[in-house]
Amino acid sequence: MFTQTQVDRFQQLETPFYFYDLNLLQQTLNECYEAAVQYNYHVHYALKANFNTKVLEAMQKVGFGADCVSGNEVKAAIAHGFANSKVVFAGVGKSDKEINAALDADIFCFNCESVQELQVINELAVAKGKTARVAIRINPNVDAHTHHYITTGLEENKFGINTWQLEDVLETLKGSNNLEFIGVHFHVGSQILNMDVFKNLCLRVNELQDWFEEHGFAIKVLNVGGGLGVDYYHPDTNAVCDFKTYFKIFRDFLKVKQGQEVHFELGRALVAQCATLVSRVLYVKNGQKKNFLILDAGMTELIRPMLYQAYHHIQNLSKGEQLTATYDVVGPICESTDCFRTDVQLPESQRGDLIAIRTAGAYGEVMASGYNLRDRVQSVYAE
Ligand SMILES: *Cc1c(COP(=O)(O)O)cnc(C)c1O
Question: What is the mean pLDDT of residues 122-135?
Answer without folding.
Answer: 98
